[in-house]
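Hi Y.,

Following your request, here is the sequence exactly as I used it, all 243 residues.
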Amino acid sequence: MSIRIEASHQIVRGRCNGHQTLVIMAKAPRPGMVKTRLARSLPPSAVTGLYRCLLDDTISLARSLDGVKVAVMCPAADREDLERTVGNAVPVVPQVGNGLAAALCSVFAHFEGADSSRIVAFNSDSPHLPTSILQAAFRLLEECDVVVGPTYDGGYYLVGARMSHPGLFTTDSMGTANALQALLTRAGALGLSVRLTDPFYDIDEAADLSRLAEELQLIPGKAPKTAKWLSEWATAGQANKGF
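Below is the corresponding structure, written out as tokens. Let me know if you'd prefer a different format.
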């Protein structure tokens, strides 16, 4: 089974038509439950504090797009905590089932149909993502079934579709270096056309956080709460002990 994939190395021009929904995949900011790989470099309380800033700035990024509905999808057990965390900024929708695969299935099953003609889900730690990539993802969905944003480590930071595709997401490769290839293989098996947005990095390891800190030193307004947290952490002399 061949996989129909075309990379998009430039922004797709033109105005998007129809309803668009941008869904942030999030968890409640509890110690030991978010950004667990960063816990090897930062104390648990610091990880949750950082995650709150990343989430807040990611929501602000999402809300900056014109004509796009924004929502948060989370584990059902996290809904109340997340609603307190985000306040009235965006609606919080509980997923059906457990794990990331179930969450992604829930996104497209929940928002497909009359509510949205194009749906894009992306990570809650992505305040540094250029808005042009999100805009391009919606536009690409006018000409393909699935759009995917690859990360440099073999995963993906974004996935979009116009409708739910049962069987597209499974638990066997989530969070692994083969996650992107596994998703593309399943898309090919389902006969779905795929376009790729530009590769980007997410915040999983200490090296990713260092890269983000350098980026936000130059452009702190890109993610102001995260930039402030990173600056205060460095000023407190903790950076040498952490990332």
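Residues 44-63 form the longest helix (20 residues).

Thanks again,
Q.
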